Amino acid sequence: MSFQSPVEIPGVSNMDFLRMACNARRSTLGLTELGPLEFYGFLSPKLAMLNMDPKFLDRNVNEGFSGGEKKRNEILQLAVLEADLAILDEIDSGLDVDALQDVAKAVNGLLTTKNAVLMITHYQRLLDSIKPTYVHIMENGRIVRTGNASLAKQLEEGGYRAIADV
């Protein structure tokens, strides 16, 4: 699960955090844990996918990170965990155009027929890059409409009144 505002974890490097999380999941799945060198080999393509400098791994988790760095870090965590289900809360929040494209490319690269991503967003710009299978519109804590990607475009163009009248 990603958060709109991820917390900082002072004193814990990204490398250690990611390797411990990865190995905990691998252990749960009955797989052997990855040593530091094996893990770095596993991690390197995921860093490249997000256009992240490997020096980033030496920094403490989210400590002093910009909004874009926090979002990239969350997607890196998702890539490392190889989650079956991810809930991404406003991953487009605070991202510039380039960072949004990198994050969208990474999320698209993580999607398979064996996993699912539930994204929460208020903006079409994310959905222009990550094509949803379903769009659910919520109002007062309830799903009031469900459709395909065209429903999000309809909402963006005409607001809630446009979808309420249909």
How would you name the CATH homologous superfamily? P-loop containing nucleotide triphosphate hydrolases
Strand order of the largest sheet: 1-2
Reported by name, the CATH topology is: Rossmann fold
Order of helices and strands: EHHEHEHEHEEH
Head-to-tail CA distance between termini: 33 Å
Number of strands: 6
Low-pLDDT runs: none
Structural class based on helices, strands and sheet pairing: alpha+beta
Q: How many distinct folded domains?
A: 1
> What is the helix content?
40-55%
Radius of gyration: 17 Å
Overall pLDDT? 88
Biggest β-sheet, characterized? 2 strands, antiparallel
Q: What's this entry about, in short?
A:
The protein is an alpha+beta fold and 166 residues long.
